[in-house]
Amino acid sequence: MATVVLGIESSCDDTAAAILVDGRLASSVVSSQAVHEQYGGVVPELASRDHQRLIVPIVDAALKKANVAITDIDAVAVTYGPGLAGSLLVGLSFAKALAAARNVPLLGVNHLEGHIYSVFLEETQPPLPHINLTVSGGHTQLIVVDKGFKHNILGRTRDDAAGEAFDKVAKLMGLGFPGGPHIDRLASKGNPEFVHFPRSRPDKFSFSFSGIKTSMLYYLADQDDRENHLREHLGDLCASFQRAVVDVLAGAVADAVEETGIPHVTITGGVSANRELGERVRADGRRLGFDVCIPRPAFCTDNAAMIAKAGEMKWHAGFESPLSLTVIPNLAL
Ligand code: KG4
Ligand code: ZN
Predict the structure, then answer these.
(1) What is the pTM of this model?
(2) What distance in Å separates the CA atoms of residue 163 and residue 262, rounded to the nearest whole number?
(3) Atom of ligand 1 lying closest to residue 303 CA
(4) Is 83 in the pocket of ligand 1 (CB under 6 A)?
């Protein structure tokens, strides 16, 4: 009999469900809530309402696509933090009810572990230990991932996350939300040396991205005709901003390889979908002798396949959650 794991993710503004059959991905469905775009950011109250509306149809869609019945599920993996409390509650309550009704294990997953272990959804899997850079809308951290789900944190951001910087800078330039994909696309047509934005690393493995956002704010305020300047140089500004962020992230990755002597790198989280970041770190890897694993874009941004995978890996290691599990919005790694 095949082992079926259902994964559920609802920590922010994506309602997602995925099915693993014997460890292989059979379906992954993500509904990104469009309601937040008009506000330029996620509105928590609207997010939880949308999760409530979407959770049943999204799980149904994942089951149908995988061609499995709800009665076939052997375990339910679900994100219980970090994230928005109201959003997490929808996914966790659904998962607990299903696990109780079907009498199958509940596997609570830290959203960050979901990102970290998303690389194991791919055919080519990185060895352990490896260095992981997780860069998303809420997190920026550099860690050593070791056997037994051990995570040694080398550094993290002291203020904004990398994805948050992409989103805030995109908003300043009048681009849609989330801003990362817009900047990524526009940057490919621009001059990355048009403006030199600050590259801030408070120490070797710490990051700070709030300064670069303020720099862009002042830079735009200094222009006599801001709208015209933006129209003429949008690509150049996107490329210059992106170059600064990539310089900082890639520099820290190369330093982490040198300091730890571990020649294996993974990059995960929404910003790891960034074309220039991937190209740069891969080029550094060829030059400095480390290999790089970045999941396909659909596994970089929030999804439930990574939650199912992390949950399943922990389940195989003997882990299970009690049905009394509650959401932890500020859950740490
Ligand atoms: O992992 P994710 O989907 O959600 C969180 O856990 O936060 O990451 C979302 C973030 C957003 O800030 C978005 O702008 C950014 O990832 N992002 C990108 C790209 N695609 C998504 N940033 C830069 N380049 C991209 N191609
Ligand atoms: Zn995420």
Answers:
(1) 0.95
(2) 26
(3) 3
(4) no
